[in-house]
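Appendix B: complex inputs.
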Amino acid sequence: MADRLAGTFAAEVKELTLDVNVIEDLGRTVYEKYLEHKVLVFRGQDISAKTFAAFGTIFGRPEEHHLIKLRHPEEPTLSLLSNQNEPGRNKEMKTSGQGWHSDYSYKLVPGSATMLHGLEIPESGGDTLFADAEAAFAALPEERKAYLRTLRVRHQYRWSPDREDPWARWKYIGPEERRQTPQISHPLVRRHPDTGRETLFIQPRVIGSVVAVEGLPEDESTALIEELIAHITSEPYVYRHRWSPLDVVVWDNRCVLHSATTKDLDERHVRRLLRLTTHGQPVTPSLPEVGHSRLCPAV
Ligand SMILES: O=C(O)CCC(=O)C(=O)O
Ligand SMILES: [Fe+2]
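Resulting structure:
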């Protein structure tokens, strides 16, 4: 039923049209395949926005996007990703998702599943990259794993170490949205709530929403973040999805990083996708004594 697409993860599910019956009858099976492969690809899905929204319920409770401007007019749990000048949007929104990240890692309860449905896809460019953070952790020496399990990492939506434009990500959110995104501390090594497997929960400081590893001098924290990201995003753990129109791709943010490659995509090459995310669970640390996710004092 599912063909492996990369070395450690990602699979294509063949001969399945995501209609209402399949969603009802095979939802559990699809969810199990998703836990096994972490990224699932379904090609040629000529389905309505409503059916895509229904598909999302297989993976949890759909979450409305906090950026209201991104929301779909009829299906509030869907948003539209586009590299075009859509009415009422800022130009930063055209390249959102650029750089390695796990969705909503800057929230107290980060994201669970994210899925995209390709509506308009350019001839070339605009691929999405995925990295298996779970397999990358599993491959580390035992001693290194033991040390990493003791650490915590601070995340924040506004974080940007770009001195030229340190508030880049805040420019297009409103005062209420800003109040809702304080600094959050998560364990660096988390346990998957369904499979119990351990994974690294980290992303880059540049573009990504990581501020620092707690308790380390800044240079050591930066070096550790860079080392871990280089490892997770190295060739053995990466899958590159080349989009075709009507592809549906779903991934598990609890163990996978992803990155859009839309930054250099020329606007004449239209890229539009529908998106849905589901509510996550509080982050469970690998070692209970490291503690769960918490809110940091205001900075
Ligand atoms: O546009 C893409 O390829 C991915 C965007 C992204 O990061 C997301 O939808 O969470
Ligand atoms: Fe994302």
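Helices lie at 20-37, 49-56, 133-138, 142-148, 175-179, 218-232.
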